[in-house]
């Protein structure tokens, strides 16, 4: 459903800048949700299932809370062989 900007702003009492700021944080909030859930569970001393954030094609972030820590795994995929070598060296240091 398409809503014209003028109609939306007339029906919404918030200033346009505030609406734009809120909309611009949507991706941030969606990506942060599993981290927030994991940190809150860890603070309570409980655990969570492994949560997957599908970040890109062939790349994901995995988050899991344990009683004493939050573990985060980053799955990366490099298309260029040189990038693969640099990534491996960088991550092993």
Largest sheet: 3 strands, antiparallel
Structural class estimated from helices and strands: alpha+beta
Q: What Rg is obtained from the alpha carbons, in whole angstroms?
A: 20 Å
Number of domains: 1
Give a count of the beta strands, DSSP E runs of length 2 or more.
Answer: 3
Let me know the average pLDDT: 86
User: Low-confidence stretches at least 5 residues in length (pLDDT < 50)?
Assistant: none
> What portion of residues belong to β-strands?
15-25%
Keyword list:
20% strand, 49% helix, alpha+beta, 3 strands
Compile the SSE list and pairings:
Blueprint: H1 5-11, H2 16-24, H3 26-43, E1 51-56, E2 59-65, E3 70-75, H4 81-92
Antiparallel strand pairs: 1-2, 2-3
Task: Report on this structure.
With 93 residues, the chain is of the alpha+beta class. It has one domain (14-92). Helix content is 49%, strand content 20%. It is built from 4 helices and 3 strands. It is flat. 4% of the residues are buried.
Could you give a quick summary of the protein structure above?
This protein is an alpha+beta fold and 93 residues long.
